[in-house]
C-alpha cells in the first residue's frame, strides 16, 4: 500500500534546500544545461601576487580572492620574506576569509621573530570587515617596526 504525503517534511531548524542561489553566495549563478550539474570554479577571481623590492622595504601587492584555495600561494610568497620589512597592499582583494586572516597573523608573528616585520597598508571594505569582526585591525595595520 503506497503512502501519500502532503509535501516534503521540513524541520524548523534546518534550512530548506532550493535551486535558488544563496543571497550570500560569492559566485554568480549560472543556468544548468544538458552537460550536467553546475560547477563553481574553486576561486571566482584567482589570486595574483606582485612583489616590488624598494630601498627600505618590500611591497607585496595582492589582487583577487584570498580563501582556502588561494591562501597557500600567498603563504608561499610571504614565508621567505620574513626577515624583511614587508608592507601589504590588499586594495584589490575583494574577498578574504579566515584563511587570509590566519596567514596575516602568523606571518606577522614569524616576521617579527626573524627580525623583519609585516603590516597591512591598503585594504578593501571586505578585508576591513574581517579585521574588525576579529578585532585584529589595530594589530595588523600597525606600522612596521623593522
UniProtKB/TrEMBL annotation:
Question: Which InterPro entries does the record associate with it?
Answer: Anti-sigma_ant, STAS_dom, STAS_dom_sf
Could you name the domain of life of the organism this protein comes from?
Bacteria
Ranges for domain STAS:
47-146
Molecular function terms in GO for this entry?
A: anti-sigma factor antagonist activity
Q: Which positions are tagged coiled coil?
A: none
- According to the record, the residues making up region (Disordered) are 1-42
Q: Give the similarity note.
A: Belongs to the anti-sigma-factor antagonist family.
Task: Return the protein name.
Answer: Anti-sigma factor antagonist
Report the source organism.
Answer: Streptomyces corynorhini
Its taxonomic placement starts with: Bacteria, Bacillati, Actinomycetota, Actinomycetes, Kitasatosporales
Amino acid at each position: 500500500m503506497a503512502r501519500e504525503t502532503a509535501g516534503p517534511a521540513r524541520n524548523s531548524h534546518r534550512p530548506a534546500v532550493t535551486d535558488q542561489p544563496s543571497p550570500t553566495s560569492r559566485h554568480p549563478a549560472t543556468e544548468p544545461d544538458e552537460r550536467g550539474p553546475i560547477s563553481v570554479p574553486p576561486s571566482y577571481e584567482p589570486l595574483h601576487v606582485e612583489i616590488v623590492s624598494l630601498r627600505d622595504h618590500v611591497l607585496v601587492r595582492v589582487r583577487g580572492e584570498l580563501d582556502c584555495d588561494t591562501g597557500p600561494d600567498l603563504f608561499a610568497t610571504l614565508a621567505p620574506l620574513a626577515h624583511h620589512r614587508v608592507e601589504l597592499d590588499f586594495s584589490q582583494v575583494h574577498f578574504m576569509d579566515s584563511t587570509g586572516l590566519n596567514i596575516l597573523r602568523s606571518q606577522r608573528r614569524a616576521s617579527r621573530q626573524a627580525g623583519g616585520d609585516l603590516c597591512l597598508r591598503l585594504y578593501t571594505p571586505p578585508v576591513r570587515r574581517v579585521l574588525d569582526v576579529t578585532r585584529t585591525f589595530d594589530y595588523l595595520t600597525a606600522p612596521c617596526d623593522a
